[in-house]
Amino acid sequence: MPELKTLLLYLVTAIAEIVGCYLPYLWLTKGKSSWLLIPAGASLALFAWLLSLHPTAAGRVYAAYGGVYIFVAILWLWAVDGIRPSVWDVVGSLVALLGMAIIMFAPRNT
Fold it and tell me: Is 79 part of a structural domain of the chain?
């Protein structure tokens, strides 16, 4: 069960980061309101706080998180941008998730 909790925490963390980056993107490239920077800042603060909840070394958390971020970014591409991922997008994100699983769940003595 701790593996599922870790994965869910990573998913929520990735969404917070992507939202925090996507809102300024809308302002800078799509002419949306600069007021979007307020929820963007809050979302990025939430992202940083969520990363701190993982019970392992920060470097390991950041390395493993990258794999989940890639996976969620591909889902975002499809769900929000309306672009269907290619087979290579899917394969790449699955490889990234495998890397995350190896980093986070490998047996350790420390």
Answer: yes
The 10s digit of each residue's pLDDT in 32-80 is 999 999 999 999 999 999 988 887 778 888 888 899 999 999 999 999 9
Q: Would you give the end-to-end CA distance of the chain in angstroms? A: 20
Question: Could you tell me if 90 and 77 are in contact, meaning their C-beta atoms sit under 8 angstroms apart?
Answer: no
- Cα 27 from Cα 81, distance rounded (Å): 15
Task: Give the residue from 5, 25, 11 showing the smallest Cα distance to 71.
Answer: 11
18 and 76 Cβ atoms separated by less than 8 Å: yes
110 found inside a domain: no
